[in-house]
Design a protein that fits this description.
The complex is a heterodimer of chains A (370) and B (516). Chain A has ten helices and 13 strands. Chain A has 370 residues and is α/β, with parallel strands linked by helices. Classes of the chains: A alpha/beta (370), B alpha/beta (516).
């Protein structure tokens, strides 16, 4: 034990200083030696930690909650993140003889839903890796699998959604000065796509939709964790407002061929003519990439989306974010609250569906008048 | 939709309809629970009533609600007949499915209840048989059913009792028959739970099959809800139906505040003050006074210029959403974009100054506005030195009127801009009027043709409670400045037919004059 403790720091000389972890002293029970699971050699891991690292590799955008006994545990950077965000004690766990103790923060399994709600609310994506066989009957390592992935843009759980507004997941494709933007609300099945040619138009469209999460394709090898509002990254293209959650995805699913194939297959159609986007490559790529993400995160539990519908921003009365703010359509200028806004004054609907529809109409009024 | 009772009935009915869009999503993804499905069934049951109410409707959304898809009606009935009225949250603990749905299930339940009855009567019969008056039959989760006898009486236990557990003051026994019944109950319960869960899953899958249909109906229900809400609002708040056209007209009479219905004091009557855009149409009758594209709106501080601008924007927006509007009458042309620039706040987040924000937003407007746009500008050029600001304001107004020809209302304190109207035929002056009393002013909140020549800024300051000495000094300073200023001369020098840039160049002159 002493030997392992002595050798480990030598192996990883480039340790980040402890203060970079940004956790109050009272929550810190051990010195943090590894703040990234990728710093550690896989061969030295215990079998469980090795499996953890594999699962983590497959879900880089999410915090991985890994079931160990009665707890869902998080390690390394995830442990540091949830200790900071949820005010949990950051402790440590032995991860292998040559490694020693690595950061650990855990939540009791019965409190999972409560903590998930908190984390998603703060803009994190979560992958829940549960035990899928009875530990009493398991031989060796208990079999674990990711059973649920919750990201800000793919919430279905009633308690996490706001009834009176849509929860949009958006996907973005940029090419030169042109862009494609698809958006969907998984809880209601709405699915739209469009493309355009000015970056400021794109920003306006994003501001109108206020998506809970935006997918961005990249060919960077390290996708990194989901960017929470305000966080920046070199991968994030310029001109895109930083106030949303961004999830980076591999470019493959966003290529024309893959995206189109995925849409055709998913809707069992032969051409995209019926959706109106046959000749809008960027719109198709964005929609296909979005669908791939849903398939990836929702697995078999994905409810079918409504038929994809293509729109152009010029079909509607354009209200840019500054006018939206000045006219106080969804919130007041002074306090940024809903009370006192136009929507507040006009919303005399009795159902959540009606309320969402009115919000959509106000932010995207028609040009054609009956 | 002006039928009050109909509207109330509709609203009453809509209140009983749950969030079908999201319920359908949960059913389709297999996360819906028993309560979700019951909520859905209850909502489906309301659809025929809804259809009856919609009989006379014309709106395309409402017409679609006149017929209820038979598939949904049947689905609703199936859910109703299968599921109990208030199912438990957990799906695997039973208690979900009604009696009479599945014969095997009913049989198992009968058997369980007869076994349970037997156990319930066991206490009485055993007391009689053994003569032990404090004999009890109980149940624990870990141990199952047992017969308990106090320690003192334990010697009287019959021979067929098997002692299982000893507590401080009593002994617990079982009998073979008790254990047999218990096993039967537990097995049957497991089976019941399993069957119920399977029935539930197949019901949920059935609902999942209809997700698309449910959502199609839900969209129309949502629209009916919105329209009904807007209609109610229009009636209670006395809104009018705007006349929409493809022309450039923008005529609103007696605008009111839509928000909170805190209609401005004294009604804010606007007699066709917002006639915009007819001037450039060829169909204009000869000889009629030209109706402008751009209005220069002047008026004292605190007279409601900004409010007025906002109302025009909101009314245009509401009309294009399909709502009635808070005014006595309105004729509106459809516009492709509404631009606004009203009082800015420092954009602290991006570190831009008030003036830079203002200029960025103005640039955005000039770069994107089209003749079909509605542009509402409030005090452009306020955030910088007086003459810089005035020059920018002049150039922006001129550009909008001559190059873009968008329908524009330009509220400003630079009364010098009123000169534009004499130079350009599609510019008109309007003012928010005040009544001037000997030593104070009364705000009338009316918009009338003509330009204001004073801002009464000092008056406003006095009303807000600035110290008298400050007010006095301000009046003194103003008198001096007015005497020496030659701004108006400087503005006339730049011909409006030339490029706006030239006008901006002309601006420094008055600046030199005043200090020179």
């Amino acid at each position: 034990m002493t030997a392992s403790k002595a050798t480990a720091p030598d192996r990883q000389p480039a340790q980040p200083p402890a203060q970079a972890i940004d956790i109050p002293e009272r929550l810190l029970k051990h010195t943090v030696r590894y703040s990234d699971y990728r710093e550690v050699s896989r061969d030295d891991f215990t079998p469980m930690m090795r499996h953890y690292a594999e699962v983590k590799d497959a879900h880089p955008y999410a915090l991985l909650l890994y079931r160990v006994g009665d707890f869902f545990e998080t390690f390394f950077q995830d442990a540091i993140a949830i200790a900071r965000e949820l005010e949990l004690v950051l402790t440590s766990k032995d991860a292998g003889k040559a490694i020693g103790r690595v950061p650990l923060a855990g939540i009791p399994h019965h409190a999972l839903d409560r903590y998930c709600t908190l984390l998603v609310d703060k803009g994190f994506a979560i992958a829940i890796c549960d035990q899928v066989e009875d530990p009493a009957q398991a031989q060796g390592l208990v079999k674990r699998e990711v059973t649920r992935v919750i990201t800000p843009g793919t919430i279905l759980e009633e308690g996490m959604l706001t009834a009176k507004r849509n929860n949009f997941l958006a996907a973005l494709v940029l090419a030169d000065k042109h862009w494609g933007l698809a958006h969907a609300d998984v809880s209601t099945g709405e699915f739209f796509t469009t493309q355009g040619s000015h970056m400021d138009q794109l920003a306006q469209e994003l501001m109108r939709l206020q998506p809970a999460e935006v997918l961005v394709p990249t060919n960077a090898p390290d996708l990194g964790a989901l960017l929470r509002p305000g966080e920046t990254s070199d991968i994030l293209p310029g001109g895109v407002p930083s106030l949303f959650c961004y999830t980076f995805r591999h470019l493959t699913a966003f290529t024309q061929a893959e995206a189109k194939q995925r849409l055709l297959q998913s809707y069992r159609v032969r051409s995209l003519e019926g959706f109106g986007c046959e000749h809008l490559p960027l719109a198709v790529r964005a929609a296909g990439g979005l669908l791939h993400y849903l398939e990836d995160t929702q697995k078999e539990s994905l409810a079918p989306l409504q038929p994809l519908s293509t729109y152009t921003t010029t079909e509607f009365l354009v209200i840019d974010s500054q006018t939206r703010r000045n006219l106080e359509i969804t919130q007041t200028v002074r306090d940024g609250v809903f009370h006192g806004s136009l929507l507040w004054a006009l919303d005399k609907t009795t159902t959540a569906m009606g309320s969402r529809a009115l919000r959509r109409w106000l932010l995207q009024p028609l040009l054609s008048v009956l | 939709m002006d039928n009050g009772t109909l509207r109330q009935q509709l609203q009453l009915l809509l209140k009983q309809i749950y969030d079908l869009e999201r319920l359908a999503g949960r059913a389709g993804s297999g996360t819906a629970n028993g309560r979700d499905l019951v909520a859905m069934a209850e909502s489906f049951e309301k659809l025929p009533d809804l259809a009856a109410l919609m009989e006379l409707a014309h709106s395309p959304y409402l017409v679609k609600l006149q017929t209820v898809p038979p598939a949904l009606e049947q689905l609703g009935q199936r859910l109703r007949s299968h599921l109990v009225d208030s199912p438990p949250l957990y799906l695997t603990d039973g208690g979900l499915i009604r009696e009479g749905v599945n014969a095997h299930l009913d049989g198992l339940r009968d058997q369980v209840s007869s076994d349970q009855r037997w156990i319930a009567s066991l206490e009485v019969s055993e007391r009689e048989r053994t003569g032990i008056s404090n004999l009890k039959v109980g149940f624990t989760k870990a141990f199952g059913y047992y017969i308990s006898i106090s320690r003192a009486k334990s010697s009287q236990a019959p021979d067929d009792y098997i002692r299982k557990q000893t507590l401080t003051d009593k002994e617990r026994y079982i009998t073979p028959e008790l254990k047999e019944r218990e096993a039967r109950i537990l097995n049957a319960k497991d089976e019941i739970n399993q069957i119920e869960y399977e029935i539930f899953l197949s019901l949920r899958a059935e609902v999942g099959q209809e997700v698309e249909l449910i959502r199609r109906v839900a969209i129309n229900v949502a629209a009916a809800d919105v329209l009904c809400g807007l209609a109610g609002l229009a009636i209670y708040q006395d809104y009018c139906q705007p006349e929409m056209g493809t022309g450039r007209t923008l005529a609103i009479e007696a605008v009111r505040q839509p928000v909170g219905e805190q209609s401005l004091p004294s009604g804010f009557f606007v007699p066709y003050a917002s006639d915009l855009g007819r001037g450039s149409r060829s169909d204009q009758t000869l000889g009629a006074p030209p109706i402008p594209d751009l209005i220069i709106l002047t008026g004292p501080n605190a007279s409601g210029k900004s409010c007025y601008l906002r109302q025009v924007g909101l009314i245009q927006l509401m009309a294009q959403v399909g709502s009635f509007v808070p005014a006595k009458a309105a004729t509106l042309g459809v516009c492709d974009r509404i631009f606004t620039r009203v009082g800015a706040v420092d954009d602290l987040a991006t570190g831009q100054s008030t003036f830079m924000v203002e200029m960025n937003e103005t640039a955005n407007i000039l770069n994107h506005a089209t003749p079909q746009s509605l542009v509402l500008l409030d005090e452009i050029g306020r955030g910088t030195a007086t003459f810089d600001g005035l020059s920018i304001a002049w150039a922006v107004a001129e550009h909008l009127a001559t190059q873009i020809r968008a329908r524009t209302i330009f509220a400003t304190h630079y009364h010098e801009l009123n000169e534009l109207a004499t130079l350009l035929e599609n510019v008109a002056n309007f003012q928010v009027t005040v009544k001037e009393m000997p030593d104070q002013i009364i705000f009338l909140h009316q918009v009338q043709p003509g330009g204001a020549d004073r801002s009464y800024g000092i008056e406003a300051g006095r009303l807000a409670g600035l110290p008298p000495s400050v007010i006095q000094r301000a009046q003194q300073v103003m008198g001096q400045i007015e005497k020496h200023s030659k701004i108006a001369v400087g503005l006339r020098k730049g011909s409006p037919s030339t490029k706006p840039a030239k006008v901006a160049e002309a601006a420094p002159n008055p600046q030199l004059n005043i200090f020179g």
